[in-house]
Amino acid sequence: MDVSCGISFSIRRVSDSHARNVLWALGGTLAATVIIFASLGSIQNQCRFEDPQLLAGITGFSGAVLGCKKLYRYYWFITVLSFVTAAYGAWTTARGFLVSSRGAVLGLIVIANLLTINMTDAFLSIVDVPKFQDGPARDRARTMIAGCIITAFFQAVSIILVGLEPNAVAPAEILEAVPKSAPETTLVELASAPQPAPQPTAAPEAPAPAPAAEPAPAAADVEAPVAQAEAAPVAAAPVAAAPEAESAVAVEVQ
């Protein structure tokens, strides 16, 4: 019975500069996590029967006396979580799913970063233990501390890059070129303001007829009484003078 198993993977070029930066940061996290794996394994491999008593009560370690297998199990969990988180983030970015999975990737990296900082503090504390002050144990402890610091640094950079949305930041030139229009602000304010309930409207009334303009009195009508009054004495004068003329004529005839 023949059994064959093969693993293949391919790396394709990513054209997006933001995605490339995220991949570089997560790749640095993966490389630094490998350092932690090697250092933590070497420290646990050199664990002796006196180590549980020496590390009991140290910051980051249990106050109870634990065996060598249980002494470092919490930090194995943190290291595995950091590695899996970085691998998941790199795969998501390379496949182009970072936009849709941004929240999940960012949340996992934040948790892994906080736990890595906690692990760094714990191994900084064991430097004061006599066993880790000289010899190979000291070198392994220092390598472990260096791996934790490098991992935490790349995780912090990954948090910044993953949380960045380059499409949401417009260049300054574009912002300056777009004119600011007051009507848009007015429309936004009107849209956000509560709209009053519509009131029933009455039927429109027919427009009232315009009053007819009264004809202006003619100038002849106004001046007629005055002319009649002035003409009355003139007309009366010939009537009164008529008898005088007749008498004059009568006298001449005689």
TrEMBL record:
Keyword Membrane annotated: yes
UniProt keyword annotations, A-Z: Membrane, Transmembrane, Transmembrane helix
Ranges of compositional bias, category Pro residues: 195-214
Region of interest (Disordered), ranges: 192-227
Keyword Transmembrane helix on entry: yes
Biased composition (Low complexity): 215-227
Name of the protein: Uncharacterized protein
